[in-house]
Amino acid sequence: MKVTIADVKKYESKEVTIGAWLSNKRSSGKIAFLQLRDGTGFMQGVVAKNDVEEEVFQLAKNMTQESSLYVTGKIVEDKRSPLGYEMQVSSIELIHEATDYPITPKEHGTEFLMDHRHLWIRSKKQHAVLKIRNEIIRSTYQFFNDNGYVKIDPPILTGSSAEGTTELFHTKYFDEEAYLSQSGQLYMEAAAMAFGKVFSFGPTFRAEKSKTRRHLIEFWMIEPEMAFVDHEESLVIQEQYVSFVVQSVLENCKMELDVLERDTSKLEQVKAPFPRISYDDAIHLLKDKGFTDIEWGEDFGAPHETAIAESFDKPVFITNYPAEIKAFYMKPVPGRPEVVLCADLIAPEGYGEIIGGSERIDDLELMKQRYEEHNLTGEAYEWYLELRKYGSVPHSGFGLGLERTVAWLSGVDHVRETIPFPRLLNRLYP
Hints:
Largest sheet: 8 strands, mixed
Catalytic activity: tRNA(Asn) + L-asparagine + ATP = L-asparaginyl-tRNA(Asn) + AMP + diphosphate + H(+)
Pfam family, one: tRNA-synt_2
Distance between the termini: 37 Å
CATH topology of the largest domain: BirA Bifunctional Protein, domain 2
Main location: cytoplasm
EC number: 6.1.1.22
Number of domains: 2
Family: Belongs to the class-II aminoacyl-tRNA synthetase family.
Mean pLDDT: 96
CATH class of the largest domain: Alpha Beta
Structural class: alpha+beta
CATH superfamily of the largest domain: Bira Bifunctional Protein, Domain 2
């Protein structure tokens, strides 16, 4: 019977066959220990010289790293194993013998590993990070589907910038100018006016020449948009969503978190509601913490966000930023037009902003004014203006950066390990 490593617990004391790769091995006299992986998990196969034919034992001893095989044997309980089970091997069928596999158990430099990313993702830690990424995606779909959201796919090729920045990838669209999307948000607003509550999940692109551990050139965003939802209601949805995702990872990725040696005690505290601090109060907090140069009206950098997050034991919302440093579509705070109804959600442990969100301007005349202030061409944005012209309603939305969230929950230092094939300032290979 052919089974997967993930399912071996169903076959205790039974003989099964697994298609696998040899990730590592060691042998001692009359016994060989095979570290097997099949994509669903990792497991040890024990080959005892006295229990198998001589050619099987010699194959086990001489097989090379990352060779592929069918391995057959009995599944037995092993409490020392992270999986809880191992295989007592009875036979091996070699499928393909790998030679000179470049990533050996020794230490390798980051650039070498990134050059071999197509192979590096086979390793136990990288496998764990990407399994956690998958769980975040799975639980995201579950949360929004269970709460009545419709998934809508915005275009990747657009005729304009979503946020009015110049950090865009430009291309020709036949005889027109076009850009790779930096956000699906504007299109999601249109979708919300048709479906009420929507979300998207897809790649976005920023031509930002940044080399920090928090930035990628291509990254994935989860962007919900909700009609008839104000800013305060949106904050509640955000904290419920993040809490749901974190608890899902804790429940369903125990082995992966163990492999990464992730301290889960802080993640276990991530349950709604989350603390909130206004931008005004955040400025005072930073000055008290020694950031004497920060002035009202300036955006926060990574050191500022980390210092603010250290004051709380959960993710924290920083609310009501100055309008001048935020996007043109954000709604002003009533009675205080110099600040807007927005929030950034800052993850603990130095991982920075994982969500940016706001209530959107729903007044046609104010949006026209914003167009003039930001020199937005009416032709490229006419359709967006029409959302305020035909049945405008209060609406809010947010975007969660998947890779930063994966980094935070996995406990890895750099977002380059949180996406299968990262695109960085100096990397387009593999």
